[in-house]
Write the structure tokens for this entry.
Amino acid sequence: MTTVSTPLRAGNDLLSRYAECMLWLARYMERIENLARLIDVTETFVRTGSTANGWQSIIEINADSERFASYSTTINAESVINFYVSARDNPNSIVSLAHAARENARAVRPLISTEMWVQLNMFTNFIRSLSPEHARQNQISALCARIKRECQTQAGITDGTLYRDQAWHFHMIGRSLERADQATRLIDIKYHTLLRPGAMVGSPVDISQWTAVLRAAAGYHAFRRLLPRDLTPGTVVGFLLKNDSFPRSVSTALRQLALSLSALRTDYGLRQAAPIIERVHGVRAILDGQTAQQILIRGLHEFMDWVQVELQGVQTDIATAFWPHEAAAAPLPTGQSQSQS
Amino acid sequence: MTTSPSSRPVISGALADYDAGDYFCEMMHRGEPPPPEIASLVQRLDHFDLAQLRQRASAAEAELFNLGITFTVYTERESIDRILPFDLIPRIITAAEWAHVEAGVRQRVAALNRFLWDIYHDGAILRDGVVPTALVHGNPNYRPVMRGLDVPGGTYVHICGTDIIRDEHGAFLVLEDNARTPSGVSYVLENRQMMLRVMPDLADGLDLRPVGEYGLQLQAALAEVAPDWASDPQVVLLSPGIFNSAYFEHVFLAREMGVPLVEGRDLVVQNDRVFMRTIGGLRPVHTIYRRLDDAFLDPECFNPDSLLGVPGIVRAYRAGNVTLANAVGTGVADDKAIYAYLPRIIRYYLNEEPILQNVPTHICGEAEGLQYTLDNLADLVVKPVGESGGYGMIIGPHATRDEIESFRKTLLANPANYISQPVVKLSVAPTLCDNGLEKRHVDLRPFAVTGRSTWVLPGGLSRVALRKGSLVVNSSQGGGSKDTWVLAS
């Protein structure tokens, strides 16, 4: 007789809606953290006077130009930060994202740990308390640090307390998808940030911007340790896209994404995950098949766009496979759709 | 504690200015001499200073927010989380009092289930003229679709919340039965948790009846009444969703029972069987604890516009393939008109005298009751029988002469729509208020869980009217709650 392992039945009963909400809870939390990182790096560009278009770039990489135009006529630190932090009518603001995260968490409250729920409540209460005061230039960095720390606390509590069944895998899928997507946006911000007149690619100003991107990704020290004498656009892009040891790189996020999908397929017998795994492997293969230098030459921005479209495709495939028809039509409380920014 | 059981405790601290007036006080009016457990509790409470109590109260409030033990009010732009205010001072029930209340609740639940079976089958009680047929068949909550359906165990009211008050003599009186989807039990469990965290020194060493097994009992009862052929029944809790103000409770109960919390869109009916949509496909469901009113349950059968329900679920129910808790059509039994007949219903089915009395109720549909009501309008509460929520009622002592005369006409136009009751002097309990510990009115809602037999959660929800002089304990009108301590001996 072989030993009978824990029956699959209990594990296989995850409601489709729960899976969807777990994924979005993770995505929104990850998105908030990365938005704080984007604001932080943009603030650095502006403060150091290394950019010609400053706050414009963050609006562009989030494809929010149209929405922002209806929100404010001037682009400056205050208007952009308010737009991305406390504007309730902007679905991509941190306050809206926190609300969406909490509403998804509320829906899966039967599954998540009380400690996760308590932290999320304290976090959303903090976010709701933010006023335009916090958008003052001299407080932005501290604000971003606080938001990042809150998100990381949430992530830590999740890692330490969330029961590791399929719900957890969907959480990991959501986090990985969003992290990969946001990593491409952080890289892309360099594309959208115009160097001030006279500064050349590879010039000290250019390098200082790449350094700021690395710092925003929390990768500066690891990068220095790895490549102490070689900070160039190519090496930074390579690090953020292709390094398998850096937790916030695109390749690490894709690897985690494939792992979680594989766990669903093999541990829980969910065969519909198979073609999605193949698709993720396909993206990884294309990323592995070229050097950072080649990507830069062929067009960094175009490549980032392509990765984002592929990730969107993976999201759609997951929705079709695990929460088809009615369940997928579930509207968000605020009336906004749960979509990539 | 060193208090001698034979003497009244000396009160000189937090309770020094406490005055319960003419009301029965759940803590202080406990006879001469008071039982030793209560005397020692009073002494402990008296030793607190108010600043300390306030500090603990605000700690408790912050914790409720952080735990998200809130009901949510949605506006167009945002959601507002409110907590049910929690008062630190427990409401005490002695072992003897509880034995009486528990027996009375069991008796009522048994009678309600027998009554529902009868009116959806032979209708003997109607034929025998004990309850007017029109009152039952004309009731909007009477569901003809239930006729002839044999529900497992004969249980219609699986979860019952009985609203009980005490008069100035301390007698327990039933105010109403809640036999549809009574809520509030989550606060009972959460209040106890909170109480033991915030006031450990007050509870220390006292032998209190625990409340934590509610989820287990509920799960067991619901599994018990699943269709017979389901060997490993899947129980789910059906919620209207996160917009419902009781959503916190739905989550709480699903977790305590360890069952999925589903919404209508998670369920689907195929071949008269109910399934839930999972990531692995459709999975069968056998018992549904539904926190959704009859009207929204099945657009095929009731409100066709309901997006919250599950098309075909009543067909599956009638086919015996799924059990709904509570059953469809229980609303007719907790109606105010039927309430007035409940003492007679108890005698009819159980051949027993009611253990818990009703608030004396005059049925205006009966000549005698109408005459009495008309003669004493200024002293009575007169309520329409149809709906809950306190609409269309008049409180005689609080009404002007004109209001009373105008109401007299309304009453005479349709006497059968009304019942009348005396204004009961609700009991009070010490409550932490702005000016210290003051008397506030309280009620009690015990929860009875019935599968094949009935289990009653010790205690229940004690609601407190936080506004001075107010008799209204509803959370929407300034009500809060207290932990209910049932002493084990």
Remarks:
- Residues 1-6 of chain B have pLDDT under 50 and may be disordered.
